[in-house]
Fold these 2 entries.
Entry 1:
Amino acid sequence: MRPELERLRLIEQQLLNGPAALPAEDWRLRQLLDGELAADAAAQQQLYHGLRRAGRRQLGQELRQIHARLYGSWWARLRRCWPL
Amino acid sequence: MTLLPPSPPPASALRDALLADREQALTRLYRRAFPLVRRYVGSHGGTAQDAQDIFHDAMVILYEQAVGGTLVLTSSAGTYLVGIARNLWHHEQRRRARLPEQSLSDAFEPLASEDSEAVTEPAIAVLDYVERLGKKCKDVLLSFYYFQQPLTQIAESNGYASVRSATVQKFKCLERLRSSVRAAWRSETLEL
C-alpha cells in the first residue's frame, strides 16, 4: 500500500484497538517524533464517528423498508378504516 | 449415551445470522417482536408511528450490541428487543412530560449507546460526505466500520479478488472521505 494508506492503517489499528496496535509507550513516542500524528488521529476518529452515524441512518432506512414490506398494505388499509 | 454438541450461545448465533444475511435476520426479528412493541406502546399512550420509531431505535441498539460482541442474552432476542423498546418508551414518555415540543425523532437522534461519546459537529458533517462518496465506497466503508462485516465477505460481495484488494480499497475510500472532509473544514476555517 502507498505510505499514505499505511499511515491510515497505523492510526486505525491504534484507534480501533486492532491486533497490530502499538503499546501505549510506543504510540506516545511516535506522537513525539511525528508532530502531525495526534491531529491526524483526532481527524480519523471524527471520520469513524461520522461513519457510525451514517451506518445508523442506513440501518434505519433498511428497517423502514422492512416495515413497509411487512405492514405497508394492511397497515394502510387499517388506518383508512380506523384513523389513529 | 450420546452427547449433543453444545448449541452456540444465542448472542453469537444472532451475530452470525445478522452478518450472514442482515435483511433476513432483521425481518425475522421484526415479525416476532414488532407486534408486541406496537401493542405495548399503543396501550401506554403512544401512536403507531411512536411504536415504529421506538422499535427501530431498539433494533439499532440490539444490532450494535450483537455485532459489537457486547450483547448478553438470557432470553430470546425478541424478548430482549421488547425489553429495550419498553425502556425507550418509558424514557420517551418522561422526556415528553419535560419537553412536550420536541419530536421523538429529534430526541432519539443520539441513541443511548452513544451516550459515552460526544457527538461533535465534524462527525455530523462527515455524514454528508459519506453520501457523496459514491455507492461502492459508501458500501465498503459502512459494511466494515458500521455493519462490521468481515473483509472476506466484503471482498466477495463487492467483487474484489482478495481480502488484500478489499483492504486497500477500504483505505482508499477512507482517504477520499478524509480529503473531502478536510477540504471542507479548511474552506470553512478560511471563511471565518
Entry 2:
Amino acid sequence: MDIETRHILECLEQDARVTHEEIATLTGLPVEDVSKRIKELEDIGVIRKYRAIVDWDLAGDEHVYAIIELKVTLERNLGYQAIAERLYKFPEVRSVRLLSGQYDLSLTVMGKTMKEVAFFVAEKISTIEQVQHTTTHFVLKTYKEDGVILQEQEETSRLVVTP
Amino acid sequence: MNDRCDPERFVADVMTKVPPSGIRKYFDLASGIEGVISLGVGEPDFVTPWHIREACIHSLESGKTSYTSNFGLLELREEIAKLYSQEHCVHYDPASEILVMSGVSEALDVAIRAITNPGDEIIVPQPAYVAYVPSVMFAGGVPVPVITHLENNFKLTAEDLEKAITPRTKALIINYPNNPTGATMDRKDLEAIAKVASEHDIMVISDEVYECLTYNGKHTCFSSIEGMKDRTILLNGFSKAYAMTGFRLAYALAPSPIINAMMRIHQYCMLCAPITAQVGAIEALRNGNEEMQRMIRDYDRRRHLIISGLNRIGLECYEPKGAFYAFPSVKNTGLTSEEFAERLLHEQKVVTIPGDVFGPAGEGFLRCSYATSKEQIVEALDRMKRFVGTL
C-alpha cells in the first residue's frame, strides 16, 4: 500500500462522512485522483461499508448482546466455511470469527432481551448438526467498540500558548 | 541605619537584557478570553501513547523512584545509540558520548555553557526558537543573528553564515526542522554549512527535536555528515516525536570531552533526569514507532489543510516541510505581525504567535501551529478569513 492510499483510508476511518474534496485538501492530491482511488478501494473490497457507530443504549433502544462460543465438528469435504455461512445468514448474528484455542467459532448475537437471545441460540444455533457445544456470555457493558471509547472522556488540557 | 531593602537591586545585570519570552504575553492575553481557538501551542495535541504511560505506571508500581546515573540509565543510552546507528549510520558510545537530560531546553543551556567563554560569539540563524539568544546571554556569550529568508524557504545559506563569522565565533546553533518556520535542510544544504564550519573551525549545536516530523523526505542528522561528528553537539528529545512534552526528557550526543563537560554542569544543576520519564523513553524507543508514524501522518494531513487554507485567505504561505508550524506572511495586510495577532485574537478569538517574537527577522510573519484538531483548524481558518475580510 502506498502512503497516499494509507492517508485516504485513515481519513475515512476517522470520519466516514469526509468528502472527497476534503480528503484532497488533507492529502494534497487532486480530487479526481482521490475519487478514483476510493472507487478502486470500494471495488476491490478494501472499503467494505460506511456506517455509524451507534450507542443504542444511549439512544434509548436498549439491545442485548451476547458472545457465543461454539465448538463444532467438521464433516468430510466441508470446512469451517460451510458452517460459518450458515451462521452469518442470521441477521441476529452480528459477527462470526474463527478462533484458535479452546473453541472454534465466536459469534456476537444481538436481541431485544436476554430471553430472546437465549432462545435464538437454543433454537437456531445449537440445533445445527455440526454444533457440538455452545457457551453464551451476555455483554453487560461495552466500554470500547471498534476503537471508539463509548464513555465521556475527561478533557486533557494544554495551555493555550506554549513555546 | 536604613533597613528598607529593594530586592530588585539583587537581580543580576544580565536579567535586564533578557526580557521574558514574547510568547508569554499571548498566553496572558488569551487566558482571559472565552472560546478561543489556539494555533499558538508548540506541543502535540496527542496524549502520550498508552503503552508509554503504562510502562511508567508499572515502573512506579515496582518502586523505581531513585536517582539514576548522571548520564541517565545505561539501557536508555544503549537504545539511543542503537537508534542512531540504524537510522543515521552514526555511532555514539553509550558510555561516554550520550547524556540524558531534562528536555532539550536544559540540554541547550548546558551545551552552550559547556563551550562558551565570556565574549565568545555564537551564531543564531533567525527567526529562531525563543530560548537560543537568552541561553547564549546567560552563558556570557554574544549572540550573533544571521537572517534566513523566505526566498530560500528559511534555510541557512553558507554565504550568509560565512559573513557572520569572526575570529571570536565559537559556535553555530541550527534547528531543522525549524520552530517557528517549519523549514528543513536536506543533506546537500547541510553539507554546505558543514564545509564552512570546518574551514572556520567552529562547533555546531544542532537542535533536532523535530527530526521525526519531517514530511516527504528523510531527515539528515548533522553529525552524520562527513567530518562533523567531532564538532557537533546534537540535541534531540521525546517531546515532539512521542507526544511526551510533560515528561521533560531529551539527550545530547557529542564527542566525549564535550559530554564530559556538559555532564559536570548537568550533575550539579539537575543531577539526573527523572527516572520515570527515562523508563517511558526506553519504551518509546523500543515500541513507539507505529504510534509515532500514525501521529506524523495526521500532522501531515493537517499541514496540507492549513497551508492551502492560509493561501486561499490570501496569507501567502510557503510549504514548510517539517515540525508542526505554518509561517504565513501578513505583509500584504499592511499590519505588523503584532497588530495582526492582537487584533485577530480580540476580534475573532484565534491565537497565533507574531513572527517578531522569534527575532526581528520574523516580522511580517505569523506562527500558526497545526498541532490541533482538524475541526479546530477549519474553524480557525474561517475566523481568520472573516478577519482578513474586514481589513
